[in-house]
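To: structure desk
From: M.T.
Subject: fold request, one chain
Message: Could you run this one when you get a chance? Sequence is below, nothing fancy, just the single chain.
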Amino acid sequence: MDPFKISIDDETAGMLGKALRVEGFFPEFTALHAGKVFPHSALWFFPKDYRLIEQGDPGEEVFIIVSGAVIITKMFGDAGAELATLKSGELFGEIALVKKGVRTASVIVAEDSRIFRLVQEDMAYLLKENAALAQHLRTLAEARLSRG
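Reply: Done. Structure tokens follow.
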């Protein structure tokens, strides 16, 4: 099965709002807000075992898991390691914001998942308009980088 776009409902929008900490702008972040704030981004269904990100590839998107789970893996020379399993409400891909758009790890979908793909055009606007969010994502990225 291939990935496909799916509609955002108000519950999903609320989760995105919490994950991205936009409550200062929108006390209640709805599907209507999501469509206006993130016009280029979308919610996707990804099937189990889908390789979403490959280490070393270019990429600037940030992903938020709405439901399901992903496994983060990384190659260290010839050896590979599983770094983490991320679940609903968690985000990944933010390291590309501080590492010039190069993916530092691979991401494999661990179970059928709904994942919001926040594209660079929308992210750039959001970071420009929300300094607290920009710092939050950079701090998260730097913490993950320091762990390996």
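Reply (cont.): The chain is about 30% helix and 35% strand. Let me know if you need anything else for the meeting.
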